[in-house]
Amino acid sequence: MSLRASRKLLVSAVLLLAAAGCTDLTVAPESTVTTANIFKDPNSYKEYLAKLYAGLQATGSVGPYGNRDIQSITDEGFSGYLRLYWQMEELPTEEAIIGWGDAALQELNTQVWGSSNQFLGGMYARVFFQVSLANEFLRQTTDAQLASRGVSGQLAADIKQYRAEARFLRALAYWNGIDLFGDIPLVKEDLVPGSPPPKQASRAEIFQFIESELNEIKPDLPAPGAATYGRASSVAADMLLAELYLNAKVYTGTDRSADARLAAERVIASGAYSLDPTYQNMFLADNNKSPEIIFAIPSDGLHQQSYGGMTTIVHASVGGNMNPSAYGLNGGWWGLRTRPEFVALFAGTGSADARSAPLFTDGQNLDVASIGNFNDGYALPKYRNVTSTGQAGSSKEFVDVDFPMFRLADAYLIYAEAVLRGGGGDMATAVQYVNLLRQRAYGNTSGNITAADLTLDFILAERGRELYWEAHRRTDLIRFDKFTTNGVWQWKGNVHDGRTTDAKFNLYPLPAAELLANPNLHQNAGY
Amino acid sequence: MWRIGFVCLVATIFVTDPALAQAGRISGTVTSTDGARPIAGAQVRVVGTRFGALTRDDGRYTITVQPGTYTLRVTRIGFTPDSMTGVVVTVDAPATADFRLQPAAVRLAGVVSIGYGTQEVRDKTGAVDVVSSDEFNTGRVVSPEQLIQSKVAGVQVVDNNEPGGGMSVRIRGASSINASSEPLYVVDGVPLQVGGGISDGDLARPGRNPLNFLNPSDIESISVLKDASAAAIYGSRGTNGVIIIKTKRGNAGSKQVTFGSTVSQSVVTGGPDLLNASQFRAAVQQFAPTNVTKLGTANTNWRDAVQHNAIGKEQQLAVSGGRDDMNYRLALGYLDQSGVLLSTGLRRLSTSFNYADKLFDKIDLTANLKGSRTDDHFTPGAVLGNATAFDPTQPIRTSTGSYFEWADNLAPGNPLAELALISDRGTTYRSVGNLESKYHLPFIEGLSTTLNLGYDLASAKRTTFTPSVERSQIVSGNGGNFYRTTPSQVNTVLDLYGNYVRKFDEYRSDVDLTAGYSYERSRGDYPAITVNGLTSDLLGPNGIPASTKAPLPTLFVDESRLASFFGRVNYTLADKYLTTLSVRRDGSSKFGPSNQWGVFPAAAFAWRLSEEPFMKRFSQVSDLKLRLSWGVNGNQSFSNYLYTSSYTLGNGLAQAQFGDQWVTTIRPSAVDPNIKWEQTTSTNVGLDYGIVKNRVTGTVDYYAKKTKDLIFTVPVAGGTNLSDFVTTNIGSLQNHGLELGLNAQVLQGGFHGLTWNASFNASTNSNKMLRINAGGSGTEQILVGGIAGGVGNTIEVLQPGYAINTFLVYKHKMLDGKPVYSDVNGDGTINEADLYEDINGDGIVNFSDRRPYKNPAPKWILAHTSQLGYRDFDASFTMRAYLGNYIYNNVASNLGNYSRIQGSGTPVNLDASVLKYGFVNPQYFSDVYIEKASFLRMDNVTLGYTFRHLGTLNALRLFGTIQNAFTITGYSGVDPTAGIDGIDNNIYPRSRTYLTGANVQF
Prior knowledge:
The structure holds 2 protein chains of 2 kinds.
Chain A (H helix, E strand, L loop, with lengths): L2 H18 L12 E2 L8 H12 L26 H10 L6 E2 L4 H8 L7 H23 L2 H6 L4 H29 L21 H15 L16 H13 L1 H5 L4 H13 L23 E5 L12 H7 L19 E2 L2 H4 L59 E5 H13 L6 H16 L13 H12 L5 H7 L32 H6 L10
Antiparallel strand pairs in A: 2-4, 3-5
Helix pairs in contact in A: 2-5, 2-7, 3-5, 5-7, 7-8, 8-9, 9-11, 9-14, 11-14, 14-15, 14-16
Chain B lengths: L1 H13 L9 E9 L10 E4 L5 E3 L5 E6 L2 E8 L6 E8 L5 E2 L2 E3 L9 E3 L4 E3 L7 E5 L22 E5 L7 E5 L12 E4 L2 E2 L27 E7 L2 H4 L10 E6 L5 E18 L6 H11 L14 H4 L4 E14 L2 E13 L6 E15 L3 E15 L5 H7 L25 H7 L1 E18 L6 E20 L4 H6 L4 E5 L2 E17 L4 E24 L19 E22 L3 E12 L8 E12 L12 E15 L10 E4 L6 E3 L2 E3 L2 E3 L9 E14 L4 E20 L9 E27 L2 E19 L9 E5 L7 E5 L7 E4 L4 E2 L2 E2 L12 H4 L15 E3 L6 E11 L2 E11 L2 E4 H6 L17 H5 L12 E3 L2 E16 L2 E17 L13 E2 L5 E12 L1
Parallel strand pairs in B: 1-7, 1-8, 14-17, 48-52
Antiparallel strand pairs in B: 1-4, 2-3, 2-5, 5-6, 9-10, 11-16, 12-13, 14-15, 16-17, 18-19, 18-53, 19-20, 20-21, 21-22, 22-23, 23-24, 24-25, 24-26, 25-27, 26-27, 27-28, 28-29, 29-30, 30-31, 31-36, 32-35, 33-34, 36-37, 37-38, 38-39, 39-46, 40-41, 41-42, 42-45, 43-44, 46-47, 47-50, 48-49, 50-51, 51-53
Helix pairs in contact in B: 5-6
């Protein structure tokens, strides 16, 4: 081979090798931030916590929809925590019925659901979405992690509080989880992503976990005040404890009425909240100003647009002869009404009880002859997208009405019920608390009751009158054993006149998809 | 990377020798045995060298070579190849070599692209097929995929009826359950980013079909690599097969100018079977008397109102020519095609330039440049769905002249108002090009190095404008919407490979070695802006007025890289035993560091039985070759960054309230850091045959493919990841099938000069999920196939033991041949328990009684093409049949129930199936909607006449074509080819196209 030829060969070989050197395949995402650098921005801690709160209503990271959080429900608008939770607490009860044709909704209306119902799958996913995100936040904000990032001073103090709030939100999700589904896995921050499927924990174990968590974080939670609206305060933690204890017998078999009473007392004694002078104002576009709301899921036409919560509830309750603009809306969605058995809670009081004012009867039949017909069943537009001064909300599509998850009236009623259930306390105070609510409703003392009137049956009815459509009803009915084997209302059991149903419906089934994904789980009895 | 390539290019030029000092010449004429017609475009090659030429129109060719003794080989599609040995060339005496070629059925001749090289079809070892331009489908062909529909066994081309609409191509069934089972497309050496790229129809992607940039009339041939051994040279992208497109080149010889022009009209032939106004009135009166007051007095066919006869026009101009060592082709094309749905259409202006030259007699330089501008007019809003659902008793316009609209917000909007008000248009600029330099190293005979630099640039925009006065905007309170997306993408590729081709006569061996390196980089940039609450509608789609709501701009960029090393050996012994071994090692940035690299080997062996002495007595058998192959391919056509845990930043509309502050959110994403390649292992056994001097040729192939580590997004156990679904490797599936191809020259001009070529192909594929192991658990079913009706309802399932996308439905009880619809058990309601079989026998009829039942993939695809010629007349037709495919008639299941007109909402029109079945409530999951959709379709009938030698005109051909002439099917819905997933819901109307045109050659 000539010298020239070998030189060419050499040149070619060098070029080949040079080209072959280009094998670097590390390409980091540029338009998204990664775990490696997200916390270089100190605002990230707060923004992460904001996602945990937003997760109670927003369906994704982009409003009104887009970049959804969970995929168990393909139509993103249906996948919001509040919307799913509200449907599961209200639709199977006498308080509400919805006319839309979605099979899964009709199963909820009539108490005939099975494990394939997608809304159950969606709610289960929502519970664990909150839990997983809270866990990740706790992992990312350990002392060691913060020290490695050089976090100190005010930011460190803030993060301590954020951690307490994250644990509150995790406890809240777990409470909803055991209330709806019974025994579910208890996943804490020590379970890292990608772990094998967790074991199932009993309701009682999770009950204990929630209880200890709430007691532990209370000192780190902020005191209630204007700056914390939309966030959990220490009073919200007590309120959640009160709810938990009140239903302890259902969850664990052990009555904890005394603890429920004490927790309610702490809420009332905090003095941070007072009854809203006008009942209706708690359900309007400016209800963030209400002095009574302890913990709300905020909704806003400009900053928090989604179909995952109040927007849907408010729109769905409007139709028929209602003028949508009177409700601050661009149109009604002709879905939600109530059943005659709920209307009967106000029997004899007529319009004297202001809480019945939202019942809309014009063009509506009391009887729900057909579930699909909006005109069958009185409409009940309790929430309206107008302010207390009559102004429309900031958007006619996305409402400004916040969801009042915990409010003082509930604490009063919990106190009264706990007293009746032998939880100690004072009967006279219980009567006084109930009468405070009734005086507000009647505008005078004409609706007041005496100690003799204050029975458990009365409490259940009064909770219906006071707290309807606030996502308490199913839990209440189960505590009073009136949800399945007792208690009849129209379309319960999928017949017009209603009938009792199997006791298995006191729990929702674990979603079919979840049983496949996690073979450790045992389905609830009867499903 | 570019810089290195450039250096290499310059270096290759620099080190080159000057031209051949002492050259000889071979020339001659190639003619046909029937009538001594000159054959143009035949390839004459000097075997064992890089020299060769194409014959001119008069059949003549000239090749310049060094003096010596050579073997010449001539190939031309449509003729049996021929060769001539002992051609002696000296400096003084040019050699003459004339050939007379025997016409043959087309398949055994010609050259097939096999990736980084070519191979003669007769020498193929794998399952590869080539379709050349003479065999392409004719008529109105907007997208290149349509050219080979029905032409290759085992290749299913599914179009969506929309002109230029997105297409699905399946080669030997689907090998993936994720988004892409589409093959890899390589155009003139540049792999295209399809799917992950810029266009597949959704709003964020501004074009319809990513191949639309390519003018079908610029394509010379389309090669299809079907089996793993053939596709393995593309390694991680070969799982779904590879389609290699070569564009036309100029021919050495006189300059040629061609001009073609066509005009077409398309007429709607199919649509859903809906109630007419009087049927609708009757239905409302009987089943929804409370809604009679809502009825109107008009008789409107809303579907007809949004459709029209669509006109298409197309012009092509091409100039080509060349000398012995240089050729060029320049082409321009213009297409203006409107759709049968009002206001939809497509316009394309395309150019193509090909240039090939020999530099210093050592370097083959080839440049291919293509560019196009495509304007797409999309179906605005929900026109199709609304035209289907609108009450036929309502008028289009009220007596005051304004569009009729319902007051009820949930009612369908007037589709004509949507057409008038909403605009949805896109423009895509795309250019694909490459520069290839092949350097013949002087010191080792047969050794060359090739550097190929390619690019694929796309830049597009799509603007949707909905004025504030449009109904959906009023209803939602949105106040007008402007949306504009302007994505752009740049892909670059560098291939550097060496090739060694040598014939060792003493060992009766042919060796063809290829080894090289390839590097690709793809970068995308996706900005978009949404503006709601427009203060003025006057600017339309051309400007953004002040808005009452904050505009929402977004930007996303991404990048991926692929680095590869590959090698291939083709070894032929005694022209009888042919072996191919290949391997590719691919590294992809789409996977995490521990899973980036994959190795994809393949091997194939072929035995030309017809060359064996024991076959000589079967004189009728002119060719017989047995092929065996095995190989592993990968699939990496997934989104980028699947393995990295990233955070999603929320926007200003999904904030959380902290006191009086609104805080933007961040969210961690759920990932599987260990995600890895999908891998397909396949084997193929094939037989190529030719009988009666290759007058009848054909192939038979049997294949089996198994894909493992399928990537899919599946539910994970609650609490074990950061969301409820994660994208991971979950299971395996298999395909196996049989393909038959037959080409026959039935008449060769003997019968009054009549010629008739007929080709048939048939293929069957059977697909089955083998295993699913999501999250290490035993998930047995993954629900897929979303339908219209109910929220989140799905109709299909992935389940081990069944084909992918098998329908999951109830078994509807039948009575007197009709599905039961009555309260059988007397419980006062008509529900599942009355209508459906209790399949699992647990006494309850619920979702667990849905069973896998039928699937959308055809069991058999049959196709036939005939080409006839008589004097100057030519005629051809292509027909196609699917057997055993099923479709879910979603229009019927969604609109075929009386509940649609009942209740307090606005009644919508019903599917006519309701008259037959009488369903009051929707029965989405009933198997009555799973319809057999076998069909026979006359895809194309063409008749042409050619005038020859008219003055300066070389030839003038006039022709007419009817496309989609007729379809015979029992399917009741819109189209039995309804989409690859078998769900027929508001698909674009089917139409028949009449086309006339002329081609002129100067």
